[in-house]
Amino acid sequence: MTPRTRKTWATRTDTGRVRTHNEDSILAHPPLFAVADGLGGHEAGEIASSIAIHTLRDHAPRHADAKALARAVRAANREVLRAAREGIGREGMGTTMTAALVEGTHIALAQVGDSRAYLLHGSELTRLTEDHSMVADLVRNGEITEEEAFRHPRRSIITRALGTDPNMVADALEVDASPGDRLLLCSDGLCGLVVDDQIARILGEYRDPTTVAAALIDAANEAGGHDNISVVVVDIESDPAGRVSDRSPSGAQAGGAGGSRARGSRTLGVVLGWLLIAAIVIGGIAYGTYRYARERAYLTVEDGYVTVYRGVPGSLAGISLSWLERTTDIPADELPTAEQSRLSDTITVGGIDAANRLIERYREQVSESQAPDGSIESVQ
Ligand code: MN
After folding, report:
1. Which of 78, 135, 237, 263 has the most neighbouring CB atoms within 10 Å?
2. 157 C-alpha to ligand 1 centroid (Å)
3. What pTM was computed for the model?
4. What is the 358 CA–ligand 1 centroid distance (Å)?
5. How confident is the model over 321-357, as pLDDT tens digits?
6. Rounded CA gap, 67 and 50, in Å?
C-alpha cells in the first residue's frame, strides 16, 4: 500500500538563463493547480501573473467543473484589468493561465494563452490544451508544421491573454485520466524549448514528482533557458471519498474504498449539518424581521388620503415588509402643513394602536380646521 505521506505533486519555477527576473507565477493549492506566464516587462508581468493566480484561488470551484473554473479565470482577467486601471503594474500587462482542478481521476481545465497542460498515460504524452498563439493558428490552418512552429521567429506571439479584453473567455475542458497518470502544467519556457518526446521521457523517468520537476527545469536550461520556466507535476490517484460510487451500505471502517466511503459520508453529514444551521439562522433572522415588521406601522398618503400600513416602509433584500391596514377619509391637504410634510415622507410609529391614535388626532385637526368657516365644500 502506498504510504499516505508520499508527495503526489511538485512545483518548480526558474528564471532561466537569460532573463533577469521571473514573471511566471504558479499555484499549488490542491486540488487546484495553475501556471501563469506574465507579460509586460518591467516587473508588470509578474504582477499580472500574481494577481491572476490569487484571484483564481479565491474564485475557483471546489469540484472539477471546467465551466466554473473558466469563470474563475475570467474573474482573474477582470482583476488584472482593474489593477492596471488603478495604476498597479502597468497598462497592457497581461498573463497566460493554465488552471487544473484535479478531483480523483477527473480533471477540469481552463486555458488562456500558450502555457500548456499535458497528460502522461503509460509512456504516451497527450497535449490537453490548445495554445492561443499565432503559430498554433498557422499549424491548425495547415500552413506550417509543429516542427516549424517550434522554431518560428514569432512563436511567442499569443492571441489571447488575461489583461487585454474584458470579454475574454477561457477554454474549458474536462478529462478523465487513470490512476498512475501524470499531469503536467508548464509555461512556454519549458514546452517552447523542450520537445514533447523529451518531456514525455522525463515525466516517465522518475517516481518522485519533485525529481521530475527539477529534471524538467534542467532540460529547459540545457536547451538555452531563454525564458522563465515553470512546471507543476501532479500524480493522478484513484477517486477521493466523494466520488466513490455508493452501491453498498456505508459504515465499512477498515481499509481501502470502505474507509473512503465512510469518510465521504461523514463529510457530507458535516456539510448538511452546517447547511441546516445556516438555514435555521437565516430563517430565524427572516422570521424575526417579519415579527418585528408585523408589530410596526406607518402612515402615508395615498390618492390624497391618509393611509395606514402595518410593517415598515421600503423593502429588505427585495422583499416588501408592509401590508395595507386601512385607508381613511382624512384628506392630507387639510392637515397642518408640518403634518403634511411629515406624511409625505411616511410616519413610522410603534404599532397599529399608535397609528390609530394619530389618525384620531388628524380627524380632530381636520374638523377643527373646517369648523371656523363652516365650509362643507371639501366634503363633496
Ligand atoms: Mn514565457
Report:
1. 135
2. 10
3. 0.64
4. 75
5. 777 787 788 888 888 888 888 887 778 777 888 888 8
6. 22
